[in-house]
Amino acid sequence: TPHIQEASIYRNKMDFEKSTEVLKKAMFKFPDNKSLPNLLAQDLRASGKIKEAKSVYWRMANKSEELAEKLAHIRSIIQLSQNDDSTHELAQKLQARLENNPKSIFPPLALAELNHHSGFYEDRRKFLLKATEIKPNDIGLLKEIARIEEEEGQYDRALETLRKIKSLDKTKSNQSLLVQFYMRNGEEDRAF
Q1: pTM of this structure
Q2: How many helices (H) and strands (E) would you count in the chain?
Q3: Could you tell me if 117 and 82 are in contact, meaning their C-beta atoms sit under 8 angstroms apart?
Q4: Are 150 and 161 in contact (CB under 8 A)?
Q5: φ and ψ of 180, to 5 deg
C-alpha cells in the first residue's frame, strides 16, 4: 500500500514519529492488513516506545487465530519485556490468563516461551505438559512442542511427538513432517 511506502520513507530517515503516525492512520483504513501492525510495532520499538509496541503485539496476539502466530507475537512481547525489566509483570499477566481460562492452550504455551527465554527450562517443561493436558491430541500444539523439542536438541522427544502427529493426522503435510525432520538433522537415509 502507499501507506507502507510512505512509512518506509520516514523510517529510512529515522523519523519514527511520522512513520508510526502514517501506519496508525493506515490501520484504521485497513484493519485486516497484518503487515501494518507488525511495522507499527517495529517502529514503536525502534523509537523506544516499548509499552506502546507491546500493546500492538498484544492486540495482534489476541486477534490471531493461529497458535504459531500468537506465539510469535508473545516472543516479541517477551523480548520487549526483557528490555524494560517487566518480565515479572508479564508472567503475572499470563498466569492470570491461565487461571481465568484454564481450557485455553495459549497461556501455558506463552508461559513456556517466557520460561524458555528466562532460562527456566524445568518450568518451561511444566507449562508444555500443562498444555498437552488441556489438548492432548491437538495437532497445532503437538507441532509446536515438536519444534521446541527439536530446537532444544531433544531429538528423541521431537521424533516421538512427530510420530504421534503422523498417527493422529494422515494428511500429506503432516506426513512430510518426519521427512523434513530427518532432512534437517542430517538423516537423509531415514527420510525416504
Answers
A1: 0.76
A2: 12, 0
A3: yes
A4: no
A5: -60, -40
